[in-house]
Amino acid sequence: MFGSGVEKDRSKAASLFKEAADAGDHQAMCHLAGCYKRGAGVEQNIEASKMWYSLYQQKRGAGSVNRVADGSKNITSRHNTL
Predict the structure, then answer these.
(1) What ranges in the chain are assigned the alpha helix state H?
(2) Are 29 and 52 within 8 A, CB to CB?
(3) 32-56 burial string, b = 16+ CB within 10 Å, else e?
(4) Per-residue pLDDT of the chain (82 residues; tens, 9 = 90+)
């Protein structure tokens, strides 16, 4: 998932995250939101990032981390490895 042992392909990663997110995978929704937020493998799109974070939060429930409020905030270093 993070390119360990293989060449990183951010476009392919974003595409696979999108496929999984469209199928309802909440973790993929979060990763895809990060891709849109940073422009990793896709054109940067803060509105799309907010939408995917919102869907992620809906799937995860009220206890999930609030990442929607400010599109300029950095997300965790784990997600920055894409």
Answers:
(1) 10-22, 26-38, 46-60
(2) yes
(3) bbbbbbbebbbeeeeebbbbbbebb
(4) 566 788 889 999 999 999 999 999 999 999 999 999 999 999 999 999 999 999 999 988 754 455 544 454 554 444 444 5
Say if 73 falls within a structural domain. no
Number of domains in the chain: 1
Domain that holds residue 14: 9-45
Is residue 78 assigned to a domain?
A: no
Alpha-carbon gap, residue 78 to 82, rounded angstroms: 9
How far is 65 from 57, CA to CA, in rounded Å? 8
pTM across the whole model: 0.71
